[in-house]
Fold these 4 entries.
Entry 1:
Amino acid sequence: SADSTIRIWDAKSYQTVKVLRGHNKPVNSVFFSPDGNYFVSASDDKTIKIWRAYDGRKMRTIDAHSSEVLYASYSPNGKYIVSSSWDNSARVWDSNKGILLATLNGHDRSVNSANFSPDGNYIVTASNDENIIIWDFPDLDELLERTKKLFNNRTLTQEERQLYDLDFEGQ
């Protein structure tokens, strides 16, 4: 809302049940994770925040963009969040670690919305430049394999893994 809060409402009584505070500028969107356990909010304060749904506890703040964040949504498997901004980009985040995985540059004006396809293989962005772009979105295992190929399929050192944020479980 414009007062920088997120309000939980009782649908029957139309009364506010809880007011969540955490953003310091207007909140532009809220989107539930597929399992309903979390939701992500996007704000003019340039952040996205992840909240636990059952008690409204703020779990993570991500300094997401260099300008206002207009929209954020979860992937169908809940592993990723995509955000869009006035900075003309969309960004993909690891929803558990809060790390940036990809920046989608291709629009000339603000990106108003970004969503995953139902199968999670694509991201669609819509912009004030009057274009819609459909982006191919590989999963992290595929990204890791692509990165290994850049290093001639050799095993990466721990330092390289940290440098390129490739320290995934089981790798």
Entry 2:
Amino acid sequence: TCWPISTRSSTNARAEGPAGYYDVERAALAVIDGETGQAHDLLASTTADDHPRWHHWNGVLAHSVGRVEAATEHWRLQVEAHPEDAEGWLPLGFHLMQDRQDYPEAEAYFRRAVAQHPEHQEFRAWLGDALLRQGRRDEALVELTAARDLEAVDPRFAAGIDDLIAQIEQG
């Protein structure tokens, strides 16, 4: 089950205005600032109907307090509900790669992300990294080279892609 569970049913969502939306935005800021209690209270008073990234922020909150399974479930629900939102794919993929070190699952996940967002540099690079960590250097090089050729998300991230490519090419 997801955490926190809203105390409101989605049929009771605030139809009169964007208050729920702004509560989720305030919760996001609270999570970033480490105010997990405030974030929990704000998210518990809203539903996924109030904001397109409700599951994303519930996942970030749950992860920040050590509720990893709840975080994973929220991030999966985020991708299911809003696959068009590229940013919604990042936390679960990062979790699979860095926290769980489940490279085969991360590979499958990033293949889905690349299929949904083929021009997103980070997804293709993370796919290449997942392949590399499984010892599949040739496949990794193909994905990382393709990532390098896409529009850079961040210069530091692009430099990291170049570094991985250089490592592979050096053997």
Entry 3:
Amino acid sequence: LMDFAQDRGFAACLSFEDAYYVYVMYDAYRARYEAEWGDASYIRDGSAQTRHEQSLPFSGFALAPAEDAADFNRSQPRLRMVRATHNAYDVCKRSVNKARGLDVLLQKLGLSWHQVVAVGDGDNDVEMLQKAGMGVAMGNAGDGVKQVADAVAPDVTQDGILWVVERYFPA
């Protein structure tokens, strides 16, 4: 991932238990993060590319053009980039997705998928929305995400999550 990001000129990081370590294009990554999401206090300069020697990362993340993400997916047999937001991608093993993680949690809690209301807005939410008893896409989601959902809430910036809570969990 890091060699690919460096060659293509996009930012990439790894997520660890203490912070996100940006291995490629730290300044660009931090600036975008602060502009879009605010507090970037847990974003660290990982340009020395050594943090993974202390422990394994949970995941990777890249800020890449769609063409580069598609090229990465064609060239990597074990990894994939899945769009989280506009030109921002989760990087994970091909077999990993949010639904698989929730499978483990549901089993531990003794619950089933028909008891789940899942909410998402990115391509990285599709499998989860498909499996949930009620899959809700946010209004800002792409068409592919909305197509697999059972309902579409208002945009996340228009209190879409509040709409879901009030609609599916009335007081």
Entry 4:
Amino acid sequence: ARMFPEADLHTLLWRRGAVSAELERHRIVTSFLDRLPAADTYYRWLLPLFARRALQLSALGYGVLLGCLGLGALLGVVLLPMVRDRVTSDRLLIVSTVVFGAMSTLLAVAHVPVVAGAALLVAGVAWIGAMSTLTVAAQNAVPAWVRGRALAVGLLAVQGGLALGGVVWGV
């Protein structure tokens, strides 16, 4: 913004007050996604539209992107035992969270499908690192006599949220 003070800023989504006043002084050009109701709140659910409009991908291309996330999770399962020998659970959770956030940011600005796929691959590794760490923490936090029920409720919340989100958005 400082190097090109007259330049327009182009973004998929924008919410007033979410960036510095210096950036908001520029003309901000958004995509059609920004015109959807509550898009700034539910933007993660818009990945299929991002794949279609920003990356010019078909349904197959979107499936490949999702496959990159899943492949990253499988890679994470292989790498986690080695990582757990070297770092604490707290550090693993922090690093996984930061890496997932960084990859989400990279995905948001990616305009090349290979970059988006690579970001999702790394995000999958980070996601499984965080989820497995949280699941183990939940197992250790509850008494043995209620452990199965507690994990079932947690799984129900995650899976139920995914199912409900699919119904709400018509997927």
